[in-house]
Specification:
2 helices; 17 strands; 47% strand; globular
Length: 218
């Protein structure tokens, strides 16, 4: 049987959906969904992506500056689930030239990428999930890597800094001074472009969410 967790990124909110136990089982599977949202006038809304170069601004920050978003992409890794009996399930991390395990590239423009399935989980009640936003040193030091960590396809690697970009956020705002370089969707001549590329791979802390319901059972 399968349970679903919805993790709303950019918010510390977790919703867990579970189904009643229908038969004894030793293993199960779980889907973790990263649903990127925005808060507009105090109301949660699905994130809307703009066409690169668009001067239509759907969002306003705390300083009253209007902006839009062209790209949102980030890595999730080192997923751990903690059961009510204290046992911990760790998603296997593996990075080789032929592919990867346990590293997931979430892309707002690709809905299928926002759902991670964890298979062969030991049956039990889980009340905590922890994960890392980014890629730890293991994924960096292993040399040429394929799959989700392939620099050629992910476009999430700094050649000049020998590390993966944990999160890319690009868009446009009239408050920007322009001059953006190294962006994926913003050209250097865009006077209003903005780009935030956040990276680093040493001592990356995990992010923990406690699942409030007690029926999070596989």
């Amino acid at each position: 049987m399968k349970s679903i967790i919805k993790l709303f990124t950019l918010l510390t909110l977790v919703t867990f959906f579970s189904c009643d136990k229908d038969e004894p089982a030793t293993t199960g599977s779980m889907e973790v969904e990263f649903d990127n949202i925005a808060i507009v006038n105090g109301i949660q809304q699905q994130l809307t992506m703009a066409t690169p170069g668009s001067a239509t601004y759907g969002y306003t920050n705390s300083l009253g500056q209007k902006f839009n978003i062209n790209l949102l992409r980030y890595y999730i890794s080192a997923i751990e689930l903690e059961a009510t009996d204290g046992k911990v399930y760790k998603d296997v991390l593996e990075a080789t030239a032929s592919g990867t395990k346990g590293y997931y590239l979430i892309d707002e423009s690709k809905p299928a990428s926002q759902v991670i399935e964890l298979a062969n989980l030991p049956s039990g009640k889980y009340n905590k999930i922890t994960f890392t936003v980014g890629v730890d040193s293991t994924g960096v030091l292993n040399g040429a890597t394929g799959g989700a960590l392939d620099p050629a396809t992910s476009k999430m690697f700094w050649n000049w800094n020998s590390g993966y970009i944990a999160l890319k956020f690009e868009g446009q705002s009239d408050a920007s001074n322009g001059g953006v370089s190294g962006a994926e969707t913003i050209t250097a001549d865009n006077a209003k472009g903005m780009a935030y590329h956040i990276g680093g791979w040493k001592n990356i802390p995990g992010t923990a969410f406690c699942l409030q319901q007690q029926k999070n059972q596989l």
